[in-house]
């Protein structure tokens, strides 16, 4: 006879017996408050959830620490979680659900895949939590409340301009030969960076002053899945083999961030080619060292401290029942609605201004001396 | 037999290789209780139970297929990639050709069956080890996912999301609960009662001594108690939520596949092949057919799991399915399957999967980081299987089995009509 059912049921049976089978007659949670606007303020020691991607870059690790300490200082209880390295999306979905279960009042999400969280954002919203997208805009959902980030289009523009400036400084007149790299296609920001850079570079490419050596100018051709260093290194290796074997020289590489920039430089060094102008972003320690050593040309300083501090300010405002300050209510459409955004200005850093730019950064400023 | 032994034996329905599973059930209960205390009662709240079911149903669905593959003596490393591939094919088809979503699901199942048949062909008819075939499949279909999707994230329409993120509708009078979930619970209670009555009757007819009446009564009370508890929990969540649709699909599949692997000739052949392929072949079992079937079936279930995940995520992404095969395989082994094949049950795998799921969930609720969670899960897997290996080397099935050594196999005759079928027919429409 089917022992299965018996067993399956016995699983829970034991549980119930142990619990004294006492749970009947609970009222439905959250009845009548579904879909309402976020409540007017909440207790000052409420739980704030922070879900971040896996620890693949220093920035996220730093952001996590800053959130943990900052929220504690502000008197909140915090739950800061990172996604796992291999099962990022599923982990993050589970973590956000858990935060909702725990009754978090505000959930700050640095999305791993910004298009795959709409179910969890909806769940959070229905439970009455305010959802803030941190650094990466969550798409395909009408339930997102705020977006806070550095102005990423501006980041792209600065990168494009730095690339030009660097190449001009080395070789006064064009045409300059460049290669383009862009970030992970599942990261909403990748396209924003790339478009920002192309905003500067495209007119020159059209005029023929800047030449993309391999001809790979489309974002799909230049994307590096998962922002993986090994992906960038492989692509650069292939480009060097396919395009730069002869006398052709490479003047510059547009790299969307520091991790990729260093991988690109490794690849170029491995091939024994002269170091081109390589851009970057994030001000990672290794890259700042590289810039000071004259290898990588530029990076972007998006001070994670400021961004986290602004996010915590938003949480504080929400706690008192106020409306957080935003400075852009037009640009960031996530496919369903325009998300009120607070954008911070990024700063370009080269060897020339590094000491000044990192003056307030305890970790980076010693490197610039 | 003393009353206590009677109780143990009859309550958990069997005396043989159930030992390990029996142990896992207690592990599961212990984990639930532990986290219920550690999380101040959050573990068993409606919201959390609903979240756990919708978060892990696709892994458990994979575990059902994986159990059959492992019982037949194979392994499937490609399930995650196959799931991701099917997910992107379906999402793209719906996006580019305006395919209605039910057709999209049908398309996904067909693609899954074709992929399964492709792998089954190499395993069964060419004789390439499944490890190699599915390792190749893992690369092939992961690449296929990126090739078709351009490593992009492709959203799916609202209707499609029902299978992964949907709930039963709120109908009928305002009872303060989700009425359809209550109805399912009621049906489950009736089915359990009917089955108990039926089994007593069968034993009487066969001239066997039925279990003492008080045992039947207690067993029934426990089961009904659990069902009522679960029903009220799932029905009592936030308005608009209920037992998730993916959970209903899972329950339907568990019932169907349990019945299939336990009570049908072709289901038992899988065990025969995995236990001793040569002997099975000499007894007239068509090895190739069985192997082909388990691989094809795995393909279909992987496709379903992939679509449920895509539906839950509202989009198909390039990171779908990463390391799902490991979760599914872990669930099956924790649930008592033998690495060498021939042993294991669907219900055991589900229990194994639930152990992992609740462990994960409980640690998450406590705010433990993913790094530690992975380490703990790894150790649980190792110790669960090590315990089994150790106990086998000691010539017994498990510690619990050794405690309850007095009873040996004295099962009732197996010729019981398929008592589960009414439950299936009751549930399947709801699952569709």
Explain this structure.
- The complex is a heterodimer of chains A (369) and B (432).
- Chain A has 369 residues and is an alpha/beta fold.
- Chain A folds into two domains: 47-144 and 304-344, Rossmann fold, CATH 3.40.50; 152-302 and 349-368, Rossmann fold (3-Layer(aba) Sandwich), CATH 3.40.50.2300.
- Chain A has helices at 3-19, 58-73, 88-101, 118-126, 152-170, 188-207, 219-222, 229-243, 258-270, 285-292, 304-319, 354-357, and strands at residues 47-52, 77-82, 106-109, 130-134, 146-150, 176-180, 210-212, 252-254, 277-278, 298-301, 341-344, 347-350.
- In chain A, helix 6 links the parallel strand 6 (176-180) and strand 7 (210-212).
- In chain A, helix 2 (58-73) runs parallel beside helix 11, helix 5 runs parallel beside helix 6 and helix 8 (229-243) crosses helix 9 (258-270).
- The longest helix of chain A has 20 residues, at 188-207.
- Chain A is elongated.
- Chain B is an all-alpha fold.
- Chain B has one domain (17-166, 244-408): ABC transporter involved in vitamin B12 uptake, BtuC, CATH 1.10.3470.
- Chain B is built from 18 helices and two strands.
- A two-stranded antiparallel ribbon of chain B has the order 1-2.
- Chain B is globular, with a radius of gyration of 22 Å.
- The model of chain B is unreliable at 13-18 and 397-432 (pLDDT under 50).
- Chains A and B meet through helix 1, strand 2, helix 3 and helix 4 of A and helix 2, helix 3, helix 8, helix 9 and helix 10 of B.
Topology:
The complex is a heterodimer of chains A (369) and B (432).
Chain A lengths: L2 H17 L27 E6 L5 H16 L3 E6 L5 H14 L4 E4 L8 H9 L3 E5 L11 E5 L1 H19 L5 E5 L7 H20 L2 E3 L6 H4 L6 H15 L8 E3 L3 H13 L6 E2 L6 H8 L5 E4 L2 H16 L21 E4 L2 E4 L3 H4 L12
Parallel strand pairs in A: 1-2, 1-3, 3-4, 4-5, 5-11, 6-7, 6-8, 8-9
Antiparallel strand pairs in A: 10-12
Chain B lengths: L2 H9 L6 H21 L7 H26 L7 H19 L3 H26 L3 H20 L4 E2 L6 H4 L13 H27 L7 H23 L9 H19 L1 H11 L1 H6 L4 H27 L1 E2 L7 H11 L11 H20 L4 H24 L5 H5 L17 H11 L1
Antiparallel strand pairs in B: 1-2
Helix pairs in contact in B: 1-9, 2-15, 3-9, 3-10, 3-13, 3-14, 3-15, 4-5, 4-6, 4-13, 5-6, 5-13, 8-9, 8-18, 10-11, 10-18, 11-13, 14-15, 14-16, 15-16
């Amino acid at each position: 006879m089917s022992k299965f059912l018996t067993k399956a049921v016995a699983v829970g049976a034991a549980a119930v017996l142990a619990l004294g089978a006492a749970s009947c007659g609970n009222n439905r949670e959250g009845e009548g408050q579904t879909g309402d606007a976020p409540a007017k303020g909440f207790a000052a020691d409420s739980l704030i959830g922070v879900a971040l991607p896996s620890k693949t870059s220093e920035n996220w690790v730093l952001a996590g620490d800053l959130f943990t300490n900052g929220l504690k200082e502000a008197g909140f209880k915090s739950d800061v979680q990172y996604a796992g390295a291999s099962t990022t999306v599923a982990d993050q979905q589970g973590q956000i659900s858990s935060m909702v279960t725990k009754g978090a009042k505000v959930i700050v999400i640095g999305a791993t895949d910004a298009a795959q969280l709409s179910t969890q954002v909806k769940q959070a919203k229905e439970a009455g939590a305010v959802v803030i997208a941190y650094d990466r805009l969550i798409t395909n959902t009408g339930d997102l409340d705020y977006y806070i980030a550095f102005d990423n289009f501006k980041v792209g523009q600065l990168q494009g301009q730095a690339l030009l400036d660097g190449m001009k400084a080395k070789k006064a007149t064009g045409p300059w030969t460049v290669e383009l790299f862009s970030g992970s296609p599942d990261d909403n920001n990748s396209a924003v960076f790339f478009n920002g850079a192309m905003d500067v570079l495209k007119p020159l490419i059209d005029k023929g002053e800047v030449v993309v050596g391999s001809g790979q100018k489309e974002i799909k051709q230049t994307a590096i899945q998962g922002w993986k260093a090994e992906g960038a290194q492989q692509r650069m290796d292939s480009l060097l083999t396919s395009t730069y074997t002869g006398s052709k020289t490479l003047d510059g590489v547009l790299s969307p961030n520091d991790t990729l920039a260093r991988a690109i430089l490794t690849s170029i060094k491995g091939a024994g080619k002269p170091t081109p102008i390589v851009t970057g972003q994030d001000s990672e320690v290794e890259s700042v060292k590289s810039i000071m050593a004259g290898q990588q040309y530029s990076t972007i300083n998006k001070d994670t401290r400021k961004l986290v501090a602004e996010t915590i300010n938003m949480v504080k405002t929400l706690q008192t029942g106020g409306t957080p300050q935003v400075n852009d209510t037009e640009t960031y459409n996530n496919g369903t609605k325009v998300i009120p955004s607070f954008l911070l200005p990024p700063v370009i850093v080269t060897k020339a201004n590094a000491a000044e730019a990192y003056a307030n950064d305890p970790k980076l400023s010693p490197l610039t001396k | 037999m003393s009353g206590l032994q009677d109780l143990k034996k009859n309550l958990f329905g069997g005396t043989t290789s159930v030992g390990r599973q029996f142990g896992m059930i207690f592990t599961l209960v212990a984990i639930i209780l532990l986290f219920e205390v550690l999380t101040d009662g959050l573990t068993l709240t409606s919201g959390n139970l609903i979240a756990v079911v919708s978060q892990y149903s696709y892994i458990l669905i994979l575990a059902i297929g994986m159990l059959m593959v492992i019982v037949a003596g194979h392994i499937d490393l490609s399930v995650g990639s196959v799931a991701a591939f099917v997910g992107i094919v379906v999402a793209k088809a719906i996006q580019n050709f305006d395919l209605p979503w039910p057709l999209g699901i049908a398309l996904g199942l067909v693609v899954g069956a074709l992929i399964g048949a492709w792998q089954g062909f190499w395993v069964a008819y060419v004789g390439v080890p499944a490890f190699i075939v599915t390792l190749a499949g893992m690369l092939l279909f992961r690449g296929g996912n990126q090739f078709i999707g351009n490593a992009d994230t492709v959203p799916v329409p609202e209707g499609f999301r029902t299978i992964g993120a949907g709930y039963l509708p709120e109908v009928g009078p305002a009872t303060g609960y989700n009425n359809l979930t209550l109805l399912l619970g009621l049906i489950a209670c009736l089915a359990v009662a009917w089955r108990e009555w039926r089994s007593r009757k069968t034993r009487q007819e066969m001239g066997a001594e039925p279990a003492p009446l008080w045992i039947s009564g207690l067993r029934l009370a426990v089961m009904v108690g659990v069902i009522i508890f679960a029903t009220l929990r799932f029905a009592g969540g936030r308005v608009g939520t209920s037992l998730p649709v993916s959970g209903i699909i899972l329950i339907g599949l568990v019932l169907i596949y349990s019945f299939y692997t336990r009570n049908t000739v072709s289901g038992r052949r899988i065990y025969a092949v995995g236990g001793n392929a040569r002997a099975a072949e000499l007894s007239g079992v068509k090895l190739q057919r069985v192997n082909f079937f388990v691989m094809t079936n795995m393909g279909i279930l992987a496709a379903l799991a992939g679509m449920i995940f895509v539906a839950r995520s509202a989009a198909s992404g390039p990171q779908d399915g990463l390391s799902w095969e490991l979760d599914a395989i872990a669930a099956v082994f924790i649930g008592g399957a033998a690495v060498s094949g021939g042993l294991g049950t669907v219900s055991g795998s589900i229990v194994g999967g639930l152990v992992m799921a609740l462990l994960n969930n409980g640690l998450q609720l406590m705010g433990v980081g993913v790094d530690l969670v992975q380490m703990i899960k790894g150790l649980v897997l190792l110790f669960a299987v090590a315990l089994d290996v150790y106990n086998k080397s000691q010539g017994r099935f498990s510690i619990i089995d050794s405690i309850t050594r007095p009873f040996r196999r004295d099962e009732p005759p197996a010729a019981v009509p398929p008592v589960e079928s009414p439950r299936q027919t009751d549930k399947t429409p709801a699952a569709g």
